[in-house]
TrEMBL record:
One Gene Ontology biological process: aromatic amino acid family biosynthetic process
Keywords: Transferase
Pfam family name, one: DAHP_synth_1
GO MF term (any one): 3-deoxy-7-phosphoheptulonate synthase activity
Entry-linked PANTHER family: PHOSPHO-2-DEHYDRO-3-DEOXYHEPTONATE ALDOLASE, PROTEIN AROA(G)
Enzyme Commission number(s): 2.5.1.54
Domain named DAHP synthetase I/KDSA: residues: 41-271
Source lineage: Bacteria, Pseudomonadati, Myxococcota, Myxococcia, Myxococcales
Name of the featured protein: 3-deoxy-7-phosphoheptulonate synthase
InterPro entries membership: Aldolase_TIM (IPR013785), Class-I_DAHP_synthase (IPR052899), DAHP1/KDSA (IPR006218), DAHP_syn_2 (IPR006268)
Length: 298
């Protein structure tokens, strides 16, 4: 890593990723998103559809995840699709639906930014800017995100090592933006029976090596709805700071990633099971702090 080497003023010697390392902030980074805090003792759940498809679909999804106790609403409006003919997302009108649904249900929102040109719009309206796995090494985008002062959720690339992932995060911190959340979303391996291989050891490793909060996305990591609950519980047990989960009111009709979408009912059951596992590792689901005067009156 060479983190100890002094930086060369002429910028010729690479000091390696060092701003992300635990030693740079031993107490850990806490990222505020609206009233929610990520990276503290409270465990944060972000949920919603892969893509915003329309007002009714989004409202049903938002209502379901809010009622179940999710803390943030997710929804893609710019979608990175393998096929150029697949649904590419609703774009700006979809973002407006997402903002409105978040407000109605009292949830901050997270949405993906794919290109630097989309940044002004997304930075104005999305509470967290998601960088997708395919963009983890889009250095122009990372540099532009470094110039913002907004939370960024950086997904691990499809075939990225932990070190490459941390270097990508370093780009954002080096620009002065310290509000970075790492997100493990599964990596490509020889295993083909699941969409990806969920690397939970990398979650524990990233928590040990860095001061950044780490989120787990069990939806893309497995691609299989029945595995989302056990992997979410395992993520909570191994030290993750939160989850990013795809929930769709009618998975069979979804325009994007329907095969891996969780049903609202299964999501609600997961939310009920998380506290038991979190308690075993001295954590709890995030809740707003109770103001001192109210707490004192109890
Ligand atoms: C998504 O969150 O819908 C998504 C496209 O994720 P990833 O970049 O991890 O594939
Ligand atoms: Mn998806």
């Amino acid at each position: 890593m060479g983190g100890q080497q002094p930086e060369d003023p002429a910028g010729r010697r690479d000091p390696g990723a060092h701003r992300v390392l635990r030693a740079a902030r031993p107490e850990g980074t806490r990222v505020r998103v609206g009233a929610v805090e990520v990276g503290g003792p409270g465990f944060v759940v972000m949920a919603g559809p892969c893509a915003v498809e329309g007002a009714e679909q989004l409202e049903l999804a938002a209502r379901a995840v809010a009622q179940a106790g999710a803390h943030l609403l997710r929804g893609g409006v710019f979608k990175p699709r393998t096929s150029p003919y697949a649904f590419q997302g609703m774009g700006e009108p979809g973002l407006k639906l997402l903002v409105d649904a978040g407000r109605r249900h009292g949830l901050p929102i997270i949405s993906e930014v794919m290109e630097t040109e989309q940044l002004p719009l997304m930075a104005e309206h999305s509470d967290i800017l998601q960088v997708g796995a395919r963009n983890m090494q889009n250095f122009g985008l990372l540099r532009a995100l470094g110039r913002l002062r907004k939370p960024v959720l950086l997904k691990r690339g499809l075939s990225a090592t932990v070190q490459e992932w941390l270097n990508a995060a370093e780009y954002i911190l080096a620009g002065g933006n310290e509000q970075v959340l790492l997100c493990e979303r599964g990596i490509r391996t020889f295993e083909t029976s699941m969409r990806n291989t969920l690397d939970l050891a990398a979650v524990a490793w990233a928590k040990e090596r860095t001061h950044l909060p780490v989120i787990v996305d069990p939806s893309h990591a497995t691609g299989i709805p029945s595995l989302i609950t056990p992997m979410s519980l395992a993520a909570a047990a191994c030290g993750a700071d939160g989850l990013l989960i795809e929930v769709h009111p009618r998975p069979e009709q979804a325009l994007c990633d329907g095969q891996q979408a969780m049903s609202p009912g299964d999501f609600a059951t997961l939310m009920q099971r998380l506290p038991g596992v979190l308690a075993a590792v001295d954590r709890h689901l995030w809740t707003p702090a109770v103001p001192a005067q109210i707490a004192g009156a109890r």
